[in-house]
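Table 4 source record.
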Amino acid sequence: MEPTRPLPPISGRGAPTNLRPTRTGSLDRAADGDWLDTAEDIDGAAPALRTTVTVEHPRTIIARNNSPDIGFDRSINPYRGCEHGCIYCFARPTHAFHDLSPGLDFESRLFAKPDAAALLRGELAKRGYMPAPLAIGTNTDGYQPIEREWGVTRAVVEVLAETRHPLIVTTKSDRILRDIDLLADMARDNLVGVAISVTTLDPAVARTLEPRAPHPKRRLAAIRKLIDAGVPTQVNISPIIPAITDHEIEAIMAAAAAAGAIRASYILLRLPHEVAPLFRAWLDAHYPDRAAKVMHMVQDIRGGRDNDPDYFSRMKGRGVWAQLIRTRVKRAAREHGLDKSFPPLRSDLFRPPERDGQMELF
């Protein structure tokens, strides 16, 4: 059930609610009994929401796609859910398939895949495997806070570096600098490209929009350090949110260019499934003065709907507002020298990993 009045924001979290998914047959859980209505008076406020991590043991680790508007056909997600808590995250609905909420559950009840590197090694060792760029961070961020303890992403990158397999990384965390030794080594053979997402330069906006992601200045500093280490790095202005962050397009471009980024890309706000009501609740909590305007512009971009799932238009949108944003992005990218092509990654250096202690020769 969609909230009927603004919900107060929860400190340190993106979603203001934990509504249950309805697509998978779950129902929202409501208080049952008059005594629950006064539980806070009796026992005090509920304890702070804490992050939990559940170990997941998948049978395979490489996810495949045949989407014509995505520049890669395979990816790895070391984690399910993401503690960054970005209210706009289009991956939130995936938690519904675990009978968990795409709201607060998505950013606080996480899943880690510690077997990821071993599974990857096995899949790369299969006869007939054909290498092509593999993406990390396209669903949930591989460098979210729990990577500090779990190190699943690091282990995966180690396998890719060892086998000289091409890699694309997308993140909004400067935690990626911990792996700069591996990335710089791969970059020398043109095996890696990195995209750092910068949504806003305003720390006040960032605190509510993506509450547990690193400060925008730290992300820009990460671009500089990666570039200095020889790692091709672009800025990803994603998502652009009408009437919330779209006025920053040119400023983000200028800051990214000053940090040394080699190109820029962007994606307009996407609101699939449960993300739409969550985003509406977030608007009501943080921007009640312009909530209706923002959604009017979103729907204009999305053909009268909250979300447009169609290939190609789902990334760039339709209509006058989408065209205006596209024109501004292209103009700013050209002005700041961020309209170059990303260097193509090599796949011809791939060598299958060891199998039974022996390197594969063919």
